[in-house]
Design a protein that fits this description.
Layout: E1 9-11, E2 14-16, E3 20-22, H1 32-40, E4 44-48, H2 63-81, E5 85-91, H3 97-106, E6 111-115, H4 128-132, E7 137-142, H5 145-159, E8 165-169, E9 175-176, H6 191-201, H7 203-209, E10 215-218, H8 224-233, E11 237-240, H9 242-245, H10 254-262, E12 268-272, E13 278-282, H11 285-291, H12 317-326, H13 349-371
Parallel strand pairs: 3-11, 4-5, 5-6, 6-7, 7-8, 8-10, 10-11
Antiparallel strand pairs: 1-2, 9-13, 12-13
Helix pairs in contact: 1-2, 2-3, 5-6, 8-13
């Protein structure tokens, strides 16, 4: 395919041949296999750090060490499989966030994506020189211009630098959502509006620091036509997660992928996650039980999320998501984006990206013809 009409995504000195980032999906949905496949096609592949050690044999006894070991292993495996761009997604809410971030920097990943909480790093743990001297690019994930402003001001004051890029994640995304439940379907919180607001908000910071900070749109983006729309709107690229689940290379089980293929629009529901956030998932027996007030007993030897009161919650979300990844859907459930019901088959990452780029080019051609 001729990529001349496809814009590249530039983040500092990093250049992705196509403006597509594969969103990080935990627990264990996007690891080295999926990330490297996306990177090999010219996009940015992302390993999700959340609960990454839960498949290690000693996780229950030593979860932090298991997480660190598993993250190093997955980063190195991805680098062995590709010369393309590899990132790591790290949730701020993780109790071992700092350790996972430092490992990502030590392993020299191309980018780290920081979200699920405001990335207000602790200068005593992540010293300014560590950020300034790192070749790794820092991408913050936000759900509003207000959040972007707070983060940029904090980084300016404490580090005298600003993030290298911003992902704006709208309310149509999958998994945990940075919105109040009542705002998920409010037109004032549409992704198009949020992207424009964030672009405007960071202009002064870009000018002050003399650097371009690309804004990436995320949440509900499904087709190449969507990609074209957001790039025309001013975004430098997009982040997509749901589309990459239904690929052969996705690190989830076939049973997990099948939940996407089989689900209908009405099966996609908003849940109250034990970590205190709304989440978007595919309804199944496990979720119906929780909706009915049935508790799923568990023991928590690690407290992986700082926002989780494990003594009061009805189930362990890390365990539920790990079970789902393994295909044990009776003991867990699948997170998904709002458009997951459109998925109808599994394909290769290569075929998926070819489809997206073809749709992008078609959208661009229609736009040119309509303007003539």
């Amino acid at each position: 395919m001729d990529l001349k009409s496809i814009p590249q995504l530039k983040i500092g000195n990093l250049i992705a041949k196509i403006p597509i980032i594969q969103g990080g999906m935990g627990v264990g949905i996007s690891l080295s296999r999926l990330a490297s496949a996306v990177a090999n096609e010219g996009g940015i592949g992302v390993i999700a750090a959340a609960g990454i050690g839960m498949l290690e044999p000693d996780f229950v006894m030593n979860f932090k060490e298991a997480n660190r070991r598993a993250l190093r292993k997955e980063i190195r495996k991805a680098k062995e499989k590709t010369d393309g761009l590899i990132g790591v997604n790290i949730m701020m809410a993780l109790t071992d966030f700092n350790e996972l971030l430092l490992i990502s920097l030590e392993e020299k990943v191309d980018l780290v994506f920081l979200g699920a909480g405001l990335p207000l790093l602790n200068p005593n743990i992540i010293p300014p020189e560590k950020l300034k001297n790192s070749e790794t690019k820092f991408v913050v994930i936000v759900s509003s211009a207000k959040a972007a402003k707070i983060i940029f001001r904090y980084w300016e004051r404490n580090y005298n630098i600003i993030p290298d890029a911003v992902v704006v994640e709208g309310p149509m995304a999958g998994g945990h959502l940075g919105f109040k439940k009542e705002n998920l379907f409010n037109p004032n919180f549409k992704l198009e509006k949020l992207v424009e607001e964030v672009i405007d908000e960071i202009k002064d910071f870009e000018q002050k620091f003399g650097k371009e900070v690309p804004v990436i749109a995320a949440g509900g983006i499904y087709t190449g036509y969507d990609i074209y729309k957001f790039i025309k709107l001013g975004a430098s690229g997009v982040q997509m997660a749901t589309r990459f689940v239904a690929t052969y290379e996705c690190d989830a089980s076939d049973e997990f992928k099948k939940t996407y293929i089989d689900c209908k629009k009405e099966d996609i529901v908003i849940i109250d996650s034990p970590v205190g956030l709304p989440g978007r998932a595919i309804r199944n027996k496990f979720i119906e039980d929780v909706f009915s007030g049935i508790k799923k007993p568990f023991k928590c030897p690690w407290k992986c999320l700082s926002t989780c009161d494990f003594n009061k919650v009805p189930y362990c979300i890390a365990l539920a998501l790990t079970n789902a990844k393994k295909g044990m859907l009776k003991d867990g459930f699948a997170f998904c984006g709002a458009n997951a019901y459109l998925v109808d088959k599994i394909m290769s990452v290569k075929k998926l990206i070819e489809t997206l780029l073809k749709e992008f080019q078609e959208a661009a051609s229609v736009s040119v013809e309509s303007s003539c």
